[in-house]
Amino acid sequence: MIQNIVSPGIWYKEWKAVRFKLMILSVVYGFVSLLLLQNTNSTYYSMGLSNTWLGYGLVITIIGGVLGGVDLIAEEKATGTLSFLLTKPVSRPQIYAAKIGVMLVALFAPFVGVGFLWLSFDMLHGNRPQLDEVLIGFAGVMAIGTFMTCMSCLISIFAATTVRAMLFGLGAMSGLVMTFLGAMAIANGLRWYMGASIKPLTLAAVLIVLGLALGLYRVGRNIFSTKEF
Hints:
Helix content is 82%, strand content 0%. By secondary structure, the protein is an all-alpha fold.
């Protein structure tokens, strides 16, 4: 298992490929942080800036996961560099793991880093959110981002160009977002009807999404390992 993941050379190569995406995500999160700073006295944010941050982070992570994942393989196929890469003494599972792993680091590093700064801000200013709920929220956003990245990378295997992969990815994202919103509406309805916390249900949902993401990763890895390019 470790041999199918660890290859420092390919991880460094993929890191160079996603550095620009990390810069874009950092700029976007920085802009969102400025918006939050301008509204720290608003009653709308009385629920805690860390909770508000989760809402923004979810949207950015979904979009970033899809747009960041669709060109992981499709772009290299279009430019012809993938065929050259496959001639190197690196296994295909290592290449696939490096592409998704580095993309996830770029996707989550600014979200988690700035998010915990906002959590510290809330706690220092007396607006103490429910820590367990916030942490479950962070885990949920990261689970959804992992799922979206694995899904879009799988789409990227079959797409001939990045544009086609992006269109398929955005279409799949739209359907999944609608499903997610419907599930959230049902969960909120259950919370109102039962008058109890839905944290166990939310945690179970996070684990299910992570399981689905792992399944997509394994499917994509197996297809990438056998497909002719």
